[in-house]
Structures are given as C-alpha cells and as structure tokens.
Design a protein that fits this description.
With about 130 residues, this protein is an alpha+beta fold. The protein is built from three helices and five strands.
C-alpha cells in the first residue's frame, strides 16, 4: 500500500456463480484498505489491542455500488482519512478499476475499549494520524 491505495486482484472466492464480485467481498477489500492505511501511518492495531486494550471498529458505513467488478480484475482500494474526531475516524473509501469508481463508501470507525465502550484516541495515535 502506498498513499492510501491498496492493490487487489479478484479471485474466484470473491465472486458469485457468474464471476461477478459478491457485494460482501467489497467490504473485505475495504477492511484491508483501512488496516493498511493505519499501518502505513504507524498505527499497529495488534499492538494497540495487546498493550492498551483498544481497537478501531466500524460504527457505520454508507456504501454505494456503482458498477460490478469481475473475476481476475485488478482493483485499487483507495482510503482517505477525512476527519479525526475525539474517539472516531471518518474515512472515504473507493474501489476503482483504472479510472472507474466501482464502489464508494463513507466509513466511521470508533475506537473502543475491551468492554465495548468508546475511548478517546490517545495523543500519540492522533499525532500519527495527522491530528
């Protein structure tokens, strides 16, 4: 991943019987994109959970399916941090094939503690994310 862009190739496991990408596969692609964006910014979610008991989870997602991807397509998952709240991130995500936007989503991720309660984003994490 570089600059919020993750390369993905479509495999059989991502498609329905007709070779068209199944809608839930886009959710997996975007999850990988969010994880890689955090990693690129120096936020290791495994360490965050192990050392602090904190994790980013999807609180809401508004998704629009525009055009289908098909078996063996080469796609890019583009993830941009739009806003950094006290305990949340707002991300703009797109799955694109070349210049064509196939899927777009606004995703709100909340930082939660092990008990499931929202937690403020620690200052050092906020700094890594550019806040």
């Amino acid at each position: 991943m570089s600059d919020g862009k993750l390369y993905v190739r479509v495999y059989w496991e991502d498609t329905d019987a007709g070779g068209v990408v199944y809608h839930a596969s886009y959710l997996r692609f975007m999850e990988r994109g969010r994880t890689e964006l955090l990693r690129e910014k120096g936020v290791d979610q495994r360490v965050l959970l192990a050392e602090r008991g904190l994790s980013f989870v999807v609180a809401s997602m508004n998704i629009r399916f525009r055009a289908p991807a098909r078996l063996d397509d080469e796609l890019d998952v583009v993830t941009i941090l739009k806003d950094l709240g006290g305990a949340s991130l707002v991300l703009d995500q797109k799955v694109v094939r070349g210049d064509e936007i196939l899927v777009s989503a606004e995703v709100i991720c909340a930082l939660i503690a092990r008990e499931g309660r929202p937690s403020r984003i620690p200052a050092e994490i906020r700094a890594k994310l550019g806040g």
